[in-house]
Specification:
This protein is mainly alpha-helical. It has 15 helices and no strands. The radius of gyration is 34 Å and the shape is globular. The relative contact order is 0.08.
Length: 354
């Protein structure tokens, strides 16, 4: 054929090829981040599959290697190295990956109990504690602070909701709980007003001092409410996904910082920080620790964990007001050391010879 000639059908074949290339729809581009998420999700499913068999019919070793190779070809080195770490930790052995340590975030869904009985019981103790703390705050503002009606009401309400307010600010839960649940405002204010007006009438002829029986009833009620407050604080911290070491501290803050704010407003020393209170803040810390142990380590049901936290708090509080136990002060500790040193010197052989 000459230079001007053409093969039979050559032009038609070239035209069809060009048409097919232009008419072929473009393949949608997949972002690297989406690809990484898909492969990580597949790897988590492979880790939950039975040993030696993947959910797609391949072995876990083959599937994981295939996923890593595809990511390597796509050029995503960061996600590829992450997948390679997952494969080397558990998938290469043909079985599931090792069980990771329990974190607070994994316990958070368990703290949302669906048991209506547990919810009602915990809410009842929480409401009772709000009214009781408002009562003690109003009484202290009236007797020791010598405040008027507005001052007593403000101090009583602050005592009832102060710890929960500090907790919500720590966890970043704003607006705080009593702005989202107005029943706490009504309960705290009504309890403060009732204490201001009705308590002197009920105590007419008896004075403001409590009898021994009345003080015991007040101590037991305060112990139960203290346990409810520390458990509620620990549950809030667990739901927020905080580390289990931080959860008891949040529980203690929830149950005690209302009293600290009350004492500062009344220009008194913080009662919970001195031996006058016995075991109070320590009790709240113990109750929150018991709740955290049951949820994170023992993994008991949420109802049992709540009961354990409240019971621990009540027991430790009884050791204080019932048996008189308290934490040592610096002065008592140094005096104990001096007494021990003097006894050892008296008992020494040289001292006996003299």
């Amino acid at each position: 054929n000459g230079p001007g000639s053409s093969w039979p059908g050559k032009s038609s074949r070239l035209e069809r090829f060009a048409r097919s290339a232009t008419d072929k729809p473009e393949r949608p581009s997949t972002s690297t981040a989406m690809l990484g998420r898909l492969v990580l999700r597949a790897s988590s499913r492979l880790g939950a599959a039975k040993a030696g068999t993947g959910i797609f019919g391949r072995s876990t070793t083959t599937s994981s290697r295939l996923a890593v190779s595809r990511l390597t070809v796509s050029g995503d080195a960061k996600v590829s190295s992450r997948m390679g770490g997952l494969w080397s930790r558990g998938f290469a052995s043909g079985g599931a990956a090792k069980k990771p340590p329990l974190k607070a975030a994994s316990v958070a869904p368990a703290c949302t109990t669906s048991d209506k009985t547990v919810k009602k019981l915990l809410s009842s103790m929480d409401y009772t504690g709000t009214a009781l703390f408002a009562f003690t705050g109003t009484l202290k503002a009236a007797v020791l602070g010598q405040m008027d009606l507005l001052g007593c009401t403000l101090v009583g309400f602050t005592t009832a909701v102060g710890g929960g307010t500090v907790r919500d600010f720590m966890l970043g839960n704003t607006p705080v709980f009593w702005l989202r649940q107005p029943q706490y405002i009504a309960l705290g204010v009504l309890s403060s007003l009732a204490t201001f007006f009705a308590f002197p009438i009920l105590r007419k002829g008896k004075g403001l001092e409590f009898t021994e029986t009345e003080q015991q009833v007040l101590d037991w009620a305060d112990s139960i409410c203290l346990g409810a407050f520390c458990v509620v604080g620990a549950m809030s911290a667990t739901k927020a996904g905080l580390h289990w070491l931080v959860v008891p501290v949040v529980g203690m803050v929830t149950s005690t910082f209302g009293g600290i704010i009350r004492d500062l407003l009344c220009r008194q020393k913080p009662w919970v920080c001195h031996t006058d209170s016995g075991l109070y803040a320590t009790t709240a810390l113990g109750g929150a620790t018991a709740f955290t142990t049951c949820t994170n380590l023992v993994r008991l049901p949420i109802g049992a964990a709540i009961g354990a936290g409240v019971a621990t708090c009540v027991f430790l509080r009884y050791l204080s007001f019932g048996l008189g136990h308290q934490l040592p002060t610096f002065a008592s500790w140094t005096s104990l050391l001096e007494e021990t040193t003097n006894k050892n010197e008296d008992a020494s052989p040289e001292k006996k010879k003299k």
